[in-house]
Amino acid sequence: xxxxxxxxxxxxxxxxxxxxxxxxxxxxxxxxxxxxxxxxxxxxxxxxxxxxxxxxxxxxxxxxxxxxxxxxxxxxxxxxxxxxxxxxxxxxxxxxxxxxxxxxxxxxxxxxxxxxxxxxxxxxxxxxxxxxxxxxxxxxxxxxxxxxxxxxxxxxxxxxxxxxxxxxxxxxxxxxxxxxxxxxxxxxxxxxxxxxxxxxxxxxxxxxxxxxxxxxxxxxxxxxxxxxxxxxxxxxxxxxxxxxxxxxxxxxxxxxxxxxxxxxxxxxxxxxxxxxxxxxxxxxxxxxxxxxxxxxxxxxxxxxxxxxxxxxxxxxxxxxxxxxxxxxxxxxxxxxxxxxxxxxxxxxxxxxxxxxxxxxxxxxxxxxxxxxxxxxxxxxxxxxxxxxxxxxxxxxxxxxxxxxxxxxxxxxxxxxxxxxxxxxxxxxxxxxxxxxxxxxxxxxxxxxxxxxxxxxxxxxxxxxxxxxxxxxxxxxxxxxxxxxxxxxxxx
Length: 491
Ligand code: HEM
Ligand SMILES: *[C@@H]1O[C@H](CO)[C@@H](O)[C@H](O)[C@H]1NC(C)=O
Ligand SMILES: *[C@@H]1O[C@H](CO)[C@@H](O)[C@H](O)[C@H]1NC(C)=O
What we know:
heme, oxidoreductase activity, acting on paired donors, with incorporation or reduction of molecular oxygen, reduced flavin or flavoprotein as one donor, and incorporation of one atom of oxygen, signal
């Protein structure tokens, strides 16, 4: 009896030791790993930032970690990130396929889809459609200006008062995507928006938290019924309803929005074995909504936080806006070419906001090399965008909010190569064009009409962001005043 027990114990220990992840030959260095857990022990699950800092200090710009049994490589600095995402784009543009989020999205859409034909076709289609080929010239600007009117209404109701801008910006970003995707906008208490907000909140809490880490580390729990997929399925149902309504009211060849464009494309392709399908469209719409809402609204929140606490920068923006837009009733995206300071400010806001600090995880598509290390196929690759956005030697003022980072000695706008808030290479953010248009039009329009003031009783501003897949500033309040223009006719 005792002998059997000993034998069993020996077997189990042997198996556990065998399960201890080992670094392949010439793999980037990293901390000692434990059986089963990998390096989970080394990371605080709530906020691993401090731990990452230590790892980078001990092991250098390219280091490795084990997420449970899975090897991952963290890449820091412009040189390493450019080598991986641009020079060796084909080797580094995959996505991990066995994570929590893959199961939630059923491997459809674009964000989490692996490097291959379905991803490529869908990505190309969205880029074409968003670049106005599908939606008509200026259509994107119209949709954004339409939504800005609602922001202005909210602000006008709050003149002289203190306002919390979180919901307002979140709703605006969400509605702009909804306008592009479905041709409609939603009031904040609408069922659709409420369900989406709930779903995003639940899923991102889970995706950041210990649950997803465990899920990603231990495939055996994948079949347990998990509460979070439920929130996603509810939203999916609402999108299915929207697509069905579109099918009833659409006129083929005259698309009103992204969904109509996709349905036209489906007609064109027929059943030629292409990757386009209605199920794809459902997940794709959700993908674009998720990817485009928190990112944009968190960047706007950061922008107004820094503009309020740097009134001299806000004033300089306003002077440029008034000078360039004199006689125009509204700003167009093309006006940016005459507004180097405003361009510098929107870019500096994105640099400081550092909205997606670790990008979206990549994955190697074949055995490859990086900075002299060997990295096998299937390794998770984590591009540390923070490390580039504040890299010393790349910026005039890497650690402070200063639009001079984007201005040359002549006051002209310049974009350093380390500006990578949208990442780089073939996987680079697909919504970059839309996001930049939103940030520019919203900031210019609001700064032209209003003055934003840090409330006297709000104390010292705290710039430390709240950690997450997308970072956001701590909740804050703003005081809004109306700007009286000398050149407006007083009625
Ligand atoms: C300020 C706003 C935004 C920021 C900072 C941002 C940032 C990013 C980053 C860092 C990635 C990962 C790229 C990579 O894997 O290397 C990404 C991917 C993506 N973003 Fe954005 N994004 C923003 C807005 C948007 C908007 C408005 C949309 C929607 C139209 C969008 C759609 C996407 C999609 C679909 C992907 C996945 C691309 C792919 O896997 O091929 N993003 N974004
Ligand atoms: C990681 O955790 C292991 C086990 O607790 C420990 O031996 C090692 O020193 C830690 N390494 C770092 C860099 O924290
Ligand atoms: C990313 O880079 C920043 C800035 O250099 C550093 O503080 C952070 O710890 C890095 N994160 C990771 C995961 O290495």
